[in-house]
Amino acid sequence: MQQKKQASLSYLILFLIASNFYINRILARFVFQSAGKWGWIAMTLVAILLIPVGFLIYFLAQPVHLKKWKESYRNNRLIRIFLRIATLTSTFLCLVFTMTLTNASWLEKTPYFLFVLPFFAIIYYVLKHGIPTFLNLATISIYPIAIQYLIFVLAKHKTFDFYALIPFSGQNISQPLMLGIAFLAMLLEPFWLLFYLDENSQPIKKGSFICVFTILLLTLIYDALIVTGQFGLLVSKIPFVYYESWRAINFGQYIVYLDIFAFFYWITSAFCRITLGVFLWHQSWPKASLKKSLIFLIVLYLTLIYTLNHVMLYASIRFALLLISLISLILAIGFNSVALVRRNRK
């Protein structure tokens, strides 16, 4: 596949949202739920501390600075090895906590090879249409998320069950050390991935970046406000609920439509990692071609989905998609590292 040098705006924005997914899940649901009425203040402080992080990411992602940054370590093998190990570590920790925080009771009845199959459809799309096209289309995921927030703000139902949203809520993941490691890994992951961005890409517009990063911070505060139980006067005046509380509230037949928006959130989080993984894989072996086998596996997967129960599609998106996206990125980085070492030896 011929590499296309396009703007990296879509990839960066999507990955910020993906990182926000994990940060919210770890911090808002486990760290500050025990902080009582002051939990939302602590989360607000965390969001404020993330502001300089956003400026740093924006600064380093610009082609001019990215090129200088890469030139500083291009010939330093130790720095390159460190960056790859750091990326692998952060991704692996995200993988571990994703598995820990997701209800996996249905896994016992699910063949493991089904975990991989949904990704062949995604990989095939990227191979056929190109990574830049895929990233541009994937930005539509932002709008359903915004619509979902709007729906819940205008909803009349205010019932909220915090513990109904947390599988494995009694596990030791709430220990400060584990939470600190998880948050650090998820916070640093975007910085490690800057290592893989194209230094010849077009500049990122400041307004777009500020807008998306502001949404990231606001959702972080919003999660903390709701999770720590700081409803108070707000709930009595404004009928809004937590954005994932469709699990606990009774929307009746409308729950199906609300659940669709969550799919965009999960898919966005996974697609950016899958896309990067496919890019690294092709960078390692440019002549490789899997189109025929991919088509076969896609048809096979759709047939299995139809013949099995309807929960399989939901479960694949809810858990397997996020899980395998992280695994695929880990493997892609590993393969790319092996290919790089082999080329250097030659």
UniProtKB/TrEMBL annotation:
Keywords: Membrane, Transmembrane, Transmembrane helix. The chain crosses the membrane at residues 12-32, 38-60, 81-104, 110-127, 134-155, 175-197, 209-234, 254-281, 293-313, 319-341. It comes from the Bacteria. This is Transmembrane protein. It comes from Candidatus Fimiplasma intestinipullorum.
